[in-house]
Write a structure and sequence with these properties.
194 residues; alpha+beta; 4 helices; 5 strands
Length: 194
């Protein structure tokens, strides 16, 4: 017969408790929250967590929804606007999940030896000026086809960013109007001009 030590079991439980506490807090499962930013209404908290992809519901488990909340390219205004604005350039790499669009090298007829490449990095899905980054590279080739590539800083990257933001805003407004029209609602102008 094995004799149990009455002091070992509480020590094992204490060690296990510390280990689980450390595991939960170090893996990011438990995060402190600001009470001013969290709704006291549990239904609103659940809805907010579901919209942010932080949880799941048992009834949605078999629907193939996955663990996150993904916006697909057809519903993301910034993505659609960028593709519209960059339609003049051939695309080299388009990665929606990574938030990256890279054009292939292109040039115009006036400077056949100089080529440009545009990289658009999406930092957020929101329509904001700091939500995307435009990086341009310029390839300059000499007569004997020796080429050098440098990052090209010019007004053009800001103009492209502005064009994308304007187009995204128009797409967003069109989508909202279409939604309201489909649901029999009317947009009320918030800033009427007299």
């Amino acid at each position: 017969m094995i004799k149990k030590n009455k002091y070992l079991e509480p020590i094992y439980r204490l060690i296990l408790g510390f280990f689980l506490f450390f595991l939960i807090t170090s893996c990011g499962i438990y995060q402190k929250s600001d009470a001013r930013k969290v709704s006291p209404n549990p239904q609103k908290r659940v809805q907010s967590n579901m919209e942010q992809g932080k949880g799941f519901r048992i009834k949605d488990f078999g629907k193939g929804r996955g663990s996150g909340n993904f916006q697909f390219a057809s519903s993301n205004e910034m993505w659609r606007a960028t593709l519209d604005v960059l339609d003049f350039a051939p695309l080299g790499n388009v990665d929606y999940s990574g938030g990256l669009i890279i054009t292939d090298w292109f040039n115009d007829a006036t400077e056949p030896r100089n080529s440009l490449k545009i990289t658009v990095r999406f930092l957020t899905n929101e329509i904001r000026a700091d939500g995307l980054e435009i990086i341009m590279h310029k390839k300059i080739c000499k007569q004997n086809l020796e080429c050098s590539i440098k990052q090209h800083k010019s007004k053009t990257s800001n103009e492209i960013k502005l064009a994308i933001l304007k187009r995204a805003t128009k797409i967003s407004k069109m989508d909202q109007d279409k939604y309201l029209e489909e649901n029999g609602k009317v947009r009320i102008n918030d800033n009427p001009k007299f």
